[in-house]
Amino acid sequence: MCGLAGFTGFKGLSREPEAVARAMADAIRHRGPDDGGTWIDAEAEVALAHRRLSIVDLSPTGHQPMASASGRHVIVFNGEIYNHRELRALLDEEGRAPGWQGTSDTEVLLEAAEAWGLRRALERAVGMFALALFDRQRRQLFLARDRLGEKPLYYGRVGGSFAFASELKALTRHPGWLGELDRDAIALYMRTGNVPAPASVYRGIRKLAPGTLVALDIATGNETVETY
Fold it and tell me: Catalytic amino acids?
């Protein structure tokens, strides 16, 4: 288990973006006590943060946020890709592999997304996961969740930012957090004992549905949501 968090849009923040990202990740430190990190693109106004539980690759080469070999893509990832060795071998066979830095499944998925595009990489991947991937060239942020929804991911507008995290408590560390309860979602919980995706108990905050990919255009703020 690991934890991820982040946001786009720095205007109106009462604290430095890195401090906000770190605070969001620290709120879910229990998900990843082994390591943590933040990554900031000040020009694009994107902040990524991660808490790591080391499982597949115990070395520092599995540190996140992780940048691709070209530097174009940056990822924060929670979960496990069961067929990462097969995907790695396929990239090698196609001549599309970088000089591998380590043995983590995160690195394999990251380079697969760069080689094939994120949707194609997700279609080929077998595992349980939630992730955020930033394309620095196209200035697009992607959120994705595994097919069965084993790993959680929440997202929505918080103040002037688009924010996301593995758990709701991480979103509360953003300075723009208001925490308005969604009465309809609470009513659903009282009737069924569950708040189904895409709802959450907070207004404006959504739970990413299983097998779903969200793309956010940083320049326009437009979102697209699709299943893969």
Answer: 2
